[in-house]
Design goal:
The protein is about 25% helix and about 30% strand. It contains 14 helices and 27 strands. β26 and β27 form a beta hairpin.
Amino acid sequence: MKKRFIPNCVFFALILVSISGCTRIKFIDKGNNFLNDMTWNYYNDSLNIAASIYGACDEKTILTKYLPCRDKKLLQKINYPLEKSTFLFYGVNRFGDWNTTYIFAFTPKPDLNDFYLDSITEYGTAKYYYQLNTKYNASITHMPTERGYLSVVIHHDRYNSKLLKKIMCTKDELEHVVRFNEPKNMTIEQLFPSSFQILSERFIRYERPNYSACCFIENFSYETCPIRKGEYHQALATYLSFAGESRKALDEFSKLYDKKPSILKGKEIAIDSLLAIAKQEKLVLFNEAHHASSHRYLLGRMLKPLYKDGFRLLGMEAIFKEDSLKFYGFPTLENGFYVRDPVMGNLVREANHMGFEVFGYDSELAQRDSFQAQNIYEKIKNYPQSKVIILGGYGHISRTPITMGGYLQNNLGLKFLSINQSKGIQYKEKKSNSLVIYDPQSERDCDLYLQNNLEIKNNCFDLRSSKKVKISLPKKKRWKTLLVVFYRHEYEKSIKAIPTLVKVLKPNTSSTKIHLCSGEYVYFIQNENERLVSENFLSVKD
Protein backbone atom coordinates (compact mmCIF):
# COMPACT_ATOMS: atom_id res chain seq x y z
CA MET A 1 0.00 0.00 0.00
CA LYS A 2 1.44 3.34 -0.99
CA LYS A 3 2.03 5.43 2.10
CA ARG A 4 1.00 9.05 2.28
CA PHE A 5 1.88 11.70 4.76
CA ILE A 6 -0.77 12.52 7.29
CA PRO A 7 0.12 14.64 10.33
CA ASN A 8 0.01 13.08 13.76
CA CYS A 9 -2.62 15.53 15.06
CA VAL A 10 -6.16 15.48 13.68
CA PHE A 11 -8.64 18.33 14.14
CA PHE A 12 -12.35 17.96 14.15
CA ALA A 13 -14.25 21.25 14.08
CA LEU A 14 -17.95 21.79 14.60
CA ILE A 15 -19.53 25.19 13.91
CA LEU A 16 -23.05 26.26 14.88
CA VAL A 17 -24.82 29.55 14.28
CA SER A 18 -24.09 33.08 15.54
CA ILE A 19 -21.00 35.21 15.31
CA SER A 20 -20.21 38.36 17.24
CA GLY A 21 -17.13 40.54 17.55
CA CYS A 22 -13.99 40.33 15.45
CA THR A 23 -10.29 40.31 16.09
CA ARG A 24 -7.56 40.38 13.53
CA ILE A 25 -4.29 38.61 14.24
CA LYS A 26 -5.04 38.41 17.94
CA PHE A 27 -6.69 35.09 18.75
CA ILE A 28 -10.04 34.55 20.42
CA ASP A 29 -9.42 33.22 23.92
CA LYS A 30 -12.78 33.68 25.62
CA GLY A 31 -13.70 30.02 25.50
CA ASN A 32 -13.12 27.30 28.04
CA ASN A 33 -10.56 24.63 27.27
CA PHE A 34 -9.14 21.61 29.02
CA LEU A 35 -6.80 18.73 28.31
CA ASN A 36 -8.24 15.23 28.64
CA ASP A 37 -5.93 12.40 27.63
CA MET A 38 -5.13 13.04 23.96
CA THR A 39 -8.06 15.37 23.35
CA TRP A 40 -8.25 19.15 23.59
CA ASN A 41 -11.78 20.50 23.79
CA TYR A 42 -12.35 24.14 22.86
CA TYR A 43 -15.56 26.11 23.32
CA ASN A 44 -16.26 29.73 22.48
CA ASP A 45 -19.63 30.99 23.66
CA SER A 46 -19.55 34.31 21.80
CA LEU A 47 -18.98 32.57 18.46
CA ASN A 48 -20.96 29.50 19.45
CA ILE A 49 -18.08 27.29 18.32
CA ALA A 50 -17.19 23.83 19.61
CA ALA A 51 -14.08 22.04 18.40
CA SER A 52 -12.10 19.00 19.48
CA ILE A 53 -8.42 18.60 18.66
CA TYR A 54 -6.88 15.12 18.68
CA GLY A 55 -3.25 14.17 19.05
CA ALA A 56 -0.02 15.21 20.71
CA CYS A 57 -0.07 18.93 19.95
CA ASP A 58 2.26 21.16 21.91
CA GLU A 59 -0.15 22.47 24.53
CA LYS A 60 1.82 25.73 24.82
CA THR A 61 0.72 26.67 21.33
CA ILE A 62 -2.98 25.88 21.76
CA LEU A 63 -5.04 29.07 22.14
CA THR A 64 -1.93 31.23 21.94
CA LYS A 65 -2.95 34.89 21.80
CA TYR A 66 -0.91 35.92 18.79
CA LEU A 67 0.09 34.33 15.52
CA PRO A 68 3.92 34.13 15.13
CA CYS A 69 5.35 36.48 12.54
CA ARG A 70 6.64 33.69 10.31
CA ASP A 71 3.16 32.13 10.07
CA LYS A 72 1.57 35.51 9.45
CA LYS A 73 3.96 35.85 6.50
CA LEU A 74 2.99 32.37 5.34
CA LEU A 75 -0.67 33.38 5.25
CA GLN A 76 0.23 36.46 3.24
CA LYS A 77 2.19 34.35 0.75
CA ILE A 78 -0.67 31.95 0.16
CA ASN A 79 -3.14 34.85 -0.15
CA TYR A 80 -5.12 33.96 2.94
CA PRO A 81 -7.62 36.78 3.84
CA LEU A 82 -5.95 38.01 7.05
CA GLU A 83 -8.01 41.13 7.51
CA LYS A 84 -11.31 39.34 7.00
CA SER A 85 -10.74 36.52 9.49
CA THR A 86 -11.34 35.99 13.18
CA PHE A 87 -8.56 33.67 14.37
CA LEU A 88 -9.70 31.03 16.80
CA PHE A 89 -6.68 28.98 17.82
CA TYR A 90 -3.25 27.94 16.66
CA GLY A 91 -1.34 24.70 17.19
CA VAL A 92 1.99 23.15 16.28
CA ASN A 93 2.64 19.42 16.14
CA ARG A 94 6.30 18.44 16.38
CA PHE A 95 7.27 14.98 15.24
CA GLY A 96 10.87 14.03 14.53
CA ASP A 97 12.50 16.52 12.20
CA TRP A 98 9.33 18.12 10.89
CA ASN A 99 6.62 20.42 12.18
CA THR A 100 3.01 20.86 11.18
CA THR A 101 1.21 24.13 11.91
CA TYR A 102 -2.57 24.37 12.26
CA ILE A 103 -4.42 27.68 12.13
CA PHE A 104 -8.19 27.73 12.68
CA ALA A 105 -10.18 30.85 11.88
CA PHE A 106 -13.65 32.14 11.10
CA THR A 107 -13.90 33.82 7.69
CA PRO A 108 -17.21 35.51 6.76
CA LYS A 109 -16.74 35.63 2.96
CA PRO A 110 -13.58 33.98 1.61
CA ASP A 111 -12.73 34.12 -2.08
CA LEU A 112 -13.53 30.58 -3.26
CA ASN A 113 -12.17 30.92 -6.78
CA ASP A 114 -9.71 28.12 -7.58
CA PHE A 115 -10.97 26.06 -4.65
CA TYR A 116 -12.05 22.45 -5.06
CA LEU A 117 -15.59 21.74 -3.85
CA ASP A 118 -16.19 18.34 -2.31
CA SER A 119 -18.45 16.75 0.28
CA ILE A 120 -18.22 14.40 3.23
CA THR A 121 -21.23 12.12 3.42
CA GLU A 122 -19.95 9.16 5.41
CA TYR A 123 -19.80 11.20 8.61
CA GLY A 124 -22.88 13.36 8.17
CA THR A 125 -23.76 15.55 5.22
CA ALA A 126 -21.29 18.41 4.84
CA LYS A 127 -19.27 20.13 2.13
CA TYR A 128 -15.96 21.93 2.07
CA TYR A 129 -13.78 23.96 -0.27
CA TYR A 130 -10.19 22.83 -0.54
CA GLN A 131 -7.01 24.21 -2.08
CA LEU A 132 -3.49 22.81 -2.01
CA ASN A 133 -0.54 25.21 -2.31
CA THR A 134 2.38 23.00 -3.33
CA LYS A 135 4.84 25.88 -3.41
CA TYR A 136 4.54 26.54 0.31
CA ASN A 137 3.54 23.04 1.50
CA ALA A 138 0.20 24.31 2.76
CA SER A 139 -3.45 23.45 2.38
CA ILE A 140 -6.47 25.72 2.94
CA THR A 141 -9.97 24.52 3.70
CA HIS A 142 -13.17 26.53 4.07
CA MET A 143 -16.22 24.75 5.51
CA PRO A 144 -19.50 26.68 5.22
CA THR A 145 -21.64 27.38 8.27
CA GLU A 146 -24.85 29.40 8.48
CA ARG A 147 -23.11 32.78 8.81
CA GLY A 148 -19.65 32.24 7.40
CA TYR A 149 -16.89 29.67 6.99
CA LEU A 150 -14.71 27.71 9.33
CA SER A 151 -11.25 28.07 7.77
CA VAL A 152 -8.30 25.79 8.43
CA VAL A 153 -4.73 26.25 7.23
CA ILE A 154 -2.37 23.29 7.56
CA HIS A 155 1.29 23.94 6.86
CA HIS A 156 3.97 21.23 6.69
CA ASP A 157 7.76 21.56 6.78
CA ARG A 158 7.94 25.06 8.28
CA TYR A 159 11.74 24.92 8.25
CA ASN A 160 11.96 24.04 4.56
CA SER A 161 13.55 20.64 5.04
CA LYS A 162 14.58 19.22 1.67
CA LEU A 163 13.44 15.78 2.81
CA LEU A 164 9.80 16.80 3.06
CA LYS A 165 9.32 18.92 -0.03
CA LYS A 166 7.11 16.30 -1.68
CA ILE A 167 5.02 15.51 1.39
CA MET A 168 1.70 17.23 1.10
CA CYS A 169 -1.75 17.13 2.64
CA THR A 170 -3.92 16.01 -0.27
CA LYS A 171 -7.67 16.38 -0.71
CA ASP A 172 -8.34 12.74 0.14
CA GLU A 173 -6.32 13.00 3.33
CA LEU A 174 -8.06 16.20 4.31
CA GLU A 175 -11.33 14.33 4.72
CA HIS A 176 -9.67 12.60 7.66
CA VAL A 177 -7.97 15.74 9.00
CA VAL A 178 -11.00 18.02 9.31
CA ARG A 179 -14.47 16.63 10.05
CA PHE A 180 -17.63 18.71 10.01
CA ASN A 181 -20.82 17.46 11.65
CA GLU A 182 -23.98 18.48 13.45
CA PRO A 183 -25.23 18.74 16.11
CA LYS A 184 -23.11 19.97 19.01
CA ASN A 185 -22.21 17.81 22.04
CA MET A 186 -21.25 14.71 20.05
CA THR A 187 -19.46 11.68 21.50
CA ILE A 188 -15.95 10.66 20.48
CA GLU A 189 -17.49 7.82 18.45
CA GLN A 190 -19.62 10.36 16.58
CA LEU A 191 -16.78 12.84 16.17
CA PHE A 192 -14.44 10.14 14.89
CA PRO A 193 -16.47 7.24 13.51
CA SER A 194 -15.05 3.77 13.92
CA SER A 195 -13.30 2.36 10.86
CA PHE A 196 -15.44 -0.76 11.31
CA GLN A 197 -18.55 1.42 11.28
CA ILE A 198 -17.46 3.29 8.15
CA LEU A 199 -16.62 0.10 6.25
CA SER A 200 -19.66 -1.80 7.44
CA GLU A 201 -21.98 0.97 6.26
CA ARG A 202 -20.27 0.91 2.89
CA PHE A 203 -20.42 -2.88 2.73
CA ILE A 204 -24.19 -3.08 3.17
CA ARG A 205 -25.22 0.16 1.47
CA TYR A 206 -26.74 -1.78 -1.43
CA GLU A 207 -28.81 -4.96 -1.50
CA ARG A 208 -25.86 -7.01 -2.74
CA PRO A 209 -22.84 -7.16 -0.35
CA ASN A 210 -20.19 -4.68 -1.46
CA TYR A 211 -16.82 -6.43 -1.35
CA SER A 212 -15.03 -3.37 -2.74
CA ALA A 213 -15.51 -1.63 0.64
CA CYS A 214 -11.84 -2.11 1.57
CA CYS A 215 -10.82 0.04 -1.42
CA PHE A 216 -12.56 3.01 0.20
CA ILE A 217 -10.01 3.48 3.00
CA GLU A 218 -7.12 1.35 1.75
CA ASN A 219 -5.11 4.36 0.62
CA PHE A 220 -5.94 6.50 3.64
CA SER A 221 -4.37 6.44 7.07
CA TYR A 222 -5.84 7.01 10.49
CA GLU A 223 -2.42 7.40 12.11
CA THR A 224 -3.31 11.03 12.68
CA CYS A 225 -5.74 9.97 15.39
CA PRO A 226 -3.99 7.84 18.01
CA ILE A 227 -7.21 6.56 19.55
CA ARG A 228 -8.29 5.19 16.14
CA LYS A 229 -4.95 4.05 14.68
CA GLY A 230 -5.08 0.42 15.82
CA GLU A 231 -8.72 0.12 14.92
CA TYR A 232 -8.01 1.39 11.41
CA HIS A 233 -5.38 -1.29 10.73
CA GLN A 234 -7.58 -4.00 12.23
CA ALA A 235 -10.65 -2.94 10.26
CA LEU A 236 -8.77 -2.66 6.98
CA ALA A 237 -7.11 -6.05 7.55
CA THR A 238 -10.52 -7.61 8.20
CA TYR A 239 -12.11 -6.19 5.05
CA LEU A 240 -9.06 -7.10 2.97
CA SER A 241 -9.60 -10.69 4.09
CA PHE A 242 -13.25 -10.42 3.03
CA ALA A 243 -12.01 -9.41 -0.44
CA GLY A 244 -9.71 -12.43 -0.69
CA GLU A 245 -6.56 -10.37 -0.06
CA SER A 246 -5.18 -12.78 2.56
CA ARG A 247 -1.55 -11.74 2.30
CA LYS A 248 -2.30 -8.02 2.40
CA ALA A 249 -4.61 -8.57 5.38
CA LEU A 250 -1.79 -10.13 7.39
CA ASP A 251 0.61 -7.35 6.40
CA GLU A 252 -1.89 -4.66 7.38
CA PHE A 253 -2.60 -6.25 10.75
CA SER A 254 1.13 -6.50 11.51
CA LYS A 255 1.22 -2.68 11.66
CA LEU A 256 -0.48 -2.94 15.04
CA TYR A 257 2.73 -4.20 16.60
CA ASP A 258 5.31 -1.70 17.83
CA LYS A 259 8.25 -3.99 17.14
CA LYS A 260 9.17 -6.13 14.18
CA PRO A 261 7.98 -9.74 14.27
CA SER A 262 10.53 -12.17 15.66
CA ILE A 263 11.48 -15.42 13.96
CA LEU A 264 9.34 -18.36 14.96
CA LYS A 265 11.07 -21.37 16.48
CA GLY A 266 9.18 -24.55 15.68
CA LYS A 267 8.81 -27.51 13.37
CA GLU A 268 6.34 -28.39 10.66
CA ILE A 269 3.38 -30.59 11.43
CA ALA A 270 1.21 -32.34 8.85
CA ILE A 271 -2.56 -31.97 8.93
CA ASP A 272 -2.84 -35.75 9.33
CA SER A 273 -0.71 -35.58 12.48
CA LEU A 274 -2.87 -32.77 13.85
CA LEU A 275 -5.97 -34.83 13.09
CA ALA A 276 -4.55 -37.81 14.97
CA ILE A 277 -4.18 -35.61 18.07
CA ALA A 278 -7.66 -34.06 17.73
CA LYS A 279 -9.43 -37.40 17.23
CA GLN A 280 -8.40 -38.51 20.71
CA GLU A 281 -10.55 -35.78 22.27
CA LYS A 282 -14.28 -35.29 22.64
CA LEU A 283 -14.15 -31.48 22.72
CA VAL A 284 -11.66 -29.54 20.58
CA LEU A 285 -11.31 -25.75 20.72
CA PHE A 286 -9.72 -23.92 17.79
CA ASN A 287 -9.16 -20.20 17.78
CA GLU A 288 -8.62 -17.74 14.94
CA ALA A 289 -7.46 -14.25 14.25
CA HIS A 290 -10.50 -12.62 12.68
CA HIS A 291 -8.54 -11.28 9.69
CA ALA A 292 -6.81 -14.61 8.91
CA SER A 293 -8.84 -16.65 6.43
CA SER A 294 -6.22 -19.42 6.53
CA HIS A 295 -7.29 -20.18 10.13
CA ARG A 296 -10.75 -21.03 8.86
CA TYR A 297 -9.31 -22.90 5.91
CA LEU A 298 -7.42 -25.29 8.20
CA LEU A 299 -10.59 -26.28 10.02
CA GLY A 300 -12.34 -26.72 6.68
CA ARG A 301 -9.62 -29.12 5.57
CA MET A 302 -10.24 -31.16 8.75
CA LEU A 303 -14.05 -31.27 8.60
CA LYS A 304 -14.52 -34.52 6.69
CA PRO A 305 -12.15 -36.74 8.72
CA LEU A 306 -13.43 -35.25 11.98
CA TYR A 307 -17.02 -35.96 10.95
CA LYS A 308 -16.11 -39.57 10.17
CA ASP A 309 -14.61 -39.84 13.66
CA GLY A 310 -17.84 -38.83 15.39
CA PHE A 311 -17.70 -35.02 15.55
CA ARG A 312 -21.23 -33.74 14.98
CA LEU A 313 -21.43 -30.26 16.54
CA LEU A 314 -19.63 -27.15 15.29
CA GLY A 315 -19.95 -24.15 17.59
CA MET A 316 -18.85 -20.82 16.13
CA GLU A 317 -18.39 -17.51 17.89
CA ALA A 318 -19.13 -15.79 14.59
CA ILE A 319 -22.55 -17.38 13.96
CA PHE A 320 -25.88 -15.70 14.68
CA LYS A 321 -29.49 -16.51 13.70
CA GLU A 322 -29.16 -20.27 13.32
CA ASP A 323 -32.81 -20.44 12.21
CA SER A 324 -31.92 -18.42 9.11
CA LEU A 325 -29.11 -20.86 8.31
CA LYS A 326 -31.50 -23.79 8.67
CA PHE A 327 -34.14 -22.06 6.54
CA TYR A 328 -31.85 -21.26 3.60
CA GLY A 329 -29.39 -24.13 4.00
CA PHE A 330 -26.48 -21.75 3.30
CA PRO A 331 -24.96 -18.69 5.01
CA THR A 332 -26.25 -15.17 4.39
CA LEU A 333 -25.39 -11.72 5.72
CA GLU A 334 -27.84 -12.35 8.57
CA ASN A 335 -25.59 -15.05 10.03
CA GLY A 336 -22.92 -12.76 11.41
CA PHE A 337 -20.24 -10.19 10.70
CA TYR A 338 -17.26 -12.49 10.09
CA VAL A 339 -19.34 -14.78 7.91
CA ARG A 340 -18.81 -12.06 5.29
CA ASP A 341 -15.44 -13.71 4.66
CA PRO A 342 -16.06 -16.16 1.78
CA VAL A 343 -13.77 -18.72 3.45
CA MET A 344 -15.83 -18.50 6.65
CA GLY A 345 -18.97 -18.76 4.53
CA ASN A 346 -17.57 -21.86 2.84
CA LEU A 347 -16.78 -23.37 6.24
CA VAL A 348 -20.37 -22.87 7.42
CA ARG A 349 -21.73 -24.07 4.07
CA GLU A 350 -19.66 -27.27 3.90
CA ALA A 351 -20.21 -28.16 7.56
CA ASN A 352 -23.95 -27.68 7.18
CA HIS A 353 -24.09 -29.83 4.03
CA MET A 354 -21.95 -32.51 5.66
CA GLY A 355 -24.38 -32.91 8.54
CA PHE A 356 -22.79 -30.89 11.33
CA GLU A 357 -25.12 -29.09 13.74
CA VAL A 358 -23.74 -25.55 13.31
CA PHE A 359 -24.57 -23.28 16.23
CA GLY A 360 -23.60 -19.91 17.63
CA TYR A 361 -22.72 -19.33 21.27
CA ASP A 362 -21.52 -15.74 21.57
CA SER A 363 -22.94 -13.25 24.05
CA GLU A 364 -23.06 -9.46 24.17
CA LEU A 365 -23.54 -9.35 27.94
CA ALA A 366 -20.93 -7.84 30.25
CA GLN A 367 -19.50 -11.16 31.43
CA ARG A 368 -19.14 -12.34 27.85
CA ASP A 369 -16.80 -15.31 28.35
CA SER A 370 -18.81 -16.88 31.16
CA PHE A 371 -22.01 -16.66 29.08
CA GLN A 372 -20.18 -18.10 26.04
CA ALA A 373 -19.13 -21.08 28.14
CA GLN A 374 -22.62 -21.55 29.55
CA ASN A 375 -24.16 -21.39 26.05
CA ILE A 376 -21.75 -24.08 24.83
CA TYR A 377 -22.46 -26.25 27.84
CA GLU A 378 -26.24 -25.97 27.43
CA LYS A 379 -25.93 -26.96 23.78
CA ILE A 380 -23.62 -29.94 24.05
CA LYS A 381 -25.25 -31.51 27.10
CA ASN A 382 -28.15 -32.47 24.81
CA TYR A 383 -25.75 -34.44 22.57
CA PRO A 384 -23.88 -36.69 25.02
CA GLN A 385 -22.61 -39.07 22.32
CA SER A 386 -21.37 -36.45 19.90
CA LYS A 387 -17.93 -34.96 19.67
CA VAL A 388 -17.74 -31.17 19.45
CA ILE A 389 -15.62 -28.56 17.64
CA ILE A 390 -15.56 -24.96 18.83
CA LEU A 391 -14.13 -22.09 16.76
CA GLY A 392 -13.56 -18.98 18.85
CA GLY A 393 -11.61 -15.78 18.53
CA TYR A 394 -8.15 -15.09 19.93
CA GLY A 395 -7.77 -15.68 23.69
CA HIS A 396 -11.27 -16.97 24.41
CA ILE A 397 -10.10 -20.59 24.16
CA SER A 398 -7.32 -20.29 26.75
CA ARG A 399 -7.50 -21.93 30.16
CA THR A 400 -7.01 -18.75 32.18
CA PRO A 401 -9.83 -18.26 34.73
CA ILE A 402 -11.63 -15.32 33.11
CA THR A 403 -11.82 -16.75 29.58
CA MET A 404 -14.45 -18.94 27.97
CA GLY A 405 -12.04 -21.89 28.05
CA GLY A 406 -11.32 -21.22 31.71
CA TYR A 407 -15.02 -21.26 32.56
CA LEU A 408 -15.55 -24.49 30.61
CA GLN A 409 -12.74 -26.18 32.53
CA ASN A 410 -12.91 -24.66 36.00
CA ASN A 411 -16.62 -23.93 36.42
CA LEU A 412 -18.32 -26.49 34.19
CA GLY A 413 -15.84 -29.36 34.49
CA LEU A 414 -15.30 -29.95 30.77
CA LYS A 415 -12.04 -31.34 29.41
CA PHE A 416 -10.83 -30.20 26.00
CA LEU A 417 -7.94 -29.79 23.60
CA SER A 418 -7.16 -26.16 22.73
CA ILE A 419 -5.36 -25.28 19.49
CA ASN A 420 -4.12 -21.69 19.26
CA GLN A 421 -3.52 -20.21 15.79
CA SER A 422 -3.70 -16.49 16.58
CA LYS A 423 -0.41 -16.19 18.47
CA GLY A 424 1.49 -17.32 15.37
CA ILE A 425 0.55 -14.19 13.42
CA GLN A 426 3.03 -12.21 15.53
CA TYR A 427 5.95 -14.11 14.02
CA LYS A 428 7.64 -14.07 10.65
CA GLU A 429 6.61 -16.89 8.36
CA LYS A 430 8.96 -19.82 8.62
CA LYS A 431 7.72 -21.43 5.44
CA SER A 432 4.80 -20.65 3.19
CA ASN A 433 1.93 -23.12 2.69
CA SER A 434 2.66 -24.99 5.91
CA LEU A 435 1.66 -25.57 9.51
CA VAL A 436 4.35 -24.92 12.09
CA ILE A 437 3.92 -26.17 15.64
CA TYR A 438 5.87 -24.29 18.29
CA ASP A 439 6.26 -23.64 21.98
CA PRO A 440 5.78 -19.96 22.92
CA GLN A 441 7.76 -20.57 26.15
CA SER A 442 6.33 -17.45 27.79
CA GLU A 443 2.89 -18.97 28.38
CA ARG A 444 1.13 -22.30 28.30
CA ASP A 445 -2.58 -21.49 28.47
CA CYS A 446 -3.35 -23.60 25.38
CA ASP A 447 -2.30 -27.13 24.42
CA LEU A 448 -0.95 -26.54 20.91
CA TYR A 449 0.33 -23.40 19.18
CA LEU A 450 0.34 -23.22 15.40
CA GLN A 451 1.54 -20.82 12.78
CA ASN A 452 -0.84 -21.37 9.90
CA ASN A 453 0.57 -20.40 6.50
CA LEU A 454 -1.77 -22.58 4.46
CA GLU A 455 -2.59 -21.43 0.95
CA ILE A 456 -6.31 -21.14 0.19
CA LYS A 457 -6.44 -23.35 -2.88
CA ASN A 458 -10.13 -23.57 -3.73
CA ASN A 459 -13.63 -22.92 -2.43
CA CYS A 460 -14.32 -26.35 -0.88
CA PHE A 461 -11.19 -27.09 1.19
CA ASP A 462 -10.23 -29.93 -1.20
CA LEU A 463 -13.25 -31.88 0.07
CA ARG A 464 -14.17 -32.35 -3.58
CA SER A 465 -12.24 -32.10 -6.81
CA SER A 466 -11.65 -28.64 -8.24
CA LYS A 467 -10.68 -27.24 -11.63
CA LYS A 468 -8.77 -24.22 -12.81
CA VAL A 469 -11.21 -21.94 -14.57
CA LYS A 470 -10.25 -19.08 -16.88
CA ILE A 471 -12.55 -16.05 -16.81
CA SER A 472 -12.38 -13.37 -19.48
CA LEU A 473 -12.69 -9.81 -18.21
CA PRO A 474 -14.23 -6.70 -19.78
CA LYS A 475 -11.85 -4.61 -21.85
CA LYS A 476 -10.63 -1.09 -21.04
CA LYS A 477 -10.71 -1.51 -17.28
CA ARG A 478 -8.91 1.49 -15.89
CA TRP A 479 -9.80 0.70 -12.28
CA LYS A 480 -9.09 -2.08 -9.87
CA THR A 481 -11.99 -4.53 -10.14
CA LEU A 482 -13.35 -7.43 -8.12
CA LEU A 483 -14.53 -10.83 -9.16
CA VAL A 484 -17.37 -12.02 -6.90
CA VAL A 485 -18.57 -15.63 -7.34
CA PHE A 486 -21.79 -17.09 -5.88
CA TYR A 487 -23.36 -20.50 -6.05
CA ARG A 488 -26.14 -19.90 -8.54
CA HIS A 489 -28.97 -21.53 -6.58
CA GLU A 490 -28.00 -19.59 -3.45
CA TYR A 491 -27.90 -16.23 -5.18
CA GLU A 492 -31.22 -16.86 -6.91
CA LYS A 493 -32.77 -17.67 -3.53
CA SER A 494 -31.24 -14.70 -1.65
CA ILE A 495 -29.10 -11.81 -2.87
CA LYS A 496 -27.78 -11.63 0.68
CA ALA A 497 -26.03 -14.98 0.18
CA ILE A 498 -22.34 -15.10 1.03
CA PRO A 499 -20.16 -15.49 -2.09
CA THR A 500 -18.01 -18.58 -2.33
CA LEU A 501 -15.03 -16.68 -3.74
CA VAL A 502 -13.87 -13.06 -4.08
CA LYS A 503 -10.75 -11.97 -5.91
CA VAL A 504 -9.28 -8.51 -6.48
CA LEU A 505 -8.19 -8.02 -10.09
CA LYS A 506 -5.49 -5.69 -11.28
CA PRO A 507 -6.33 -2.93 -13.79
CA ASN A 508 -6.07 -3.61 -17.51
CA THR A 509 -5.98 -7.40 -17.26
CA SER A 510 -7.87 -9.38 -19.87
CA SER A 511 -8.45 -12.60 -17.91
CA THR A 512 -7.92 -14.34 -14.59
CA LYS A 513 -7.75 -17.94 -13.37
CA ILE A 514 -9.44 -19.34 -10.27
CA HIS A 515 -9.93 -22.80 -8.77
CA LEU A 516 -13.57 -23.80 -8.30
CA CYS A 517 -15.10 -27.05 -7.09
CA SER A 518 -17.92 -28.63 -9.06
CA GLY A 519 -21.14 -26.64 -9.15
CA GLU A 520 -23.24 -24.03 -10.93
CA TYR A 521 -22.13 -20.44 -10.36
CA VAL A 522 -23.02 -16.84 -11.13
CA TYR A 523 -20.20 -14.33 -11.03
CA PHE A 524 -19.98 -10.54 -11.14
CA ILE A 525 -17.28 -8.10 -12.14
CA GLN A 526 -17.48 -4.98 -10.01
CA ASN A 527 -15.16 -1.97 -10.00
CA GLU A 528 -13.83 -0.30 -6.86
CA ASN A 529 -16.38 2.49 -7.31
CA GLU A 530 -19.05 -0.15 -6.64
CA ARG A 531 -20.42 -0.15 -10.18
CA LEU A 532 -21.44 -3.53 -11.58
CA VAL A 533 -19.53 -4.13 -14.83
CA SER A 534 -20.83 -7.54 -15.90
CA GLU A 535 -22.77 -10.64 -14.81
CA ASN A 536 -22.21 -14.16 -16.13
CA PHE A 537 -23.02 -17.80 -15.40
CA LEU A 538 -20.51 -20.63 -15.08
CA SER A 539 -20.74 -24.41 -14.77
CA VAL A 540 -17.90 -26.52 -13.34
CA LYS A 541 -18.26 -30.29 -13.71
CA ASP A 542 -16.28 -33.15 -12.16
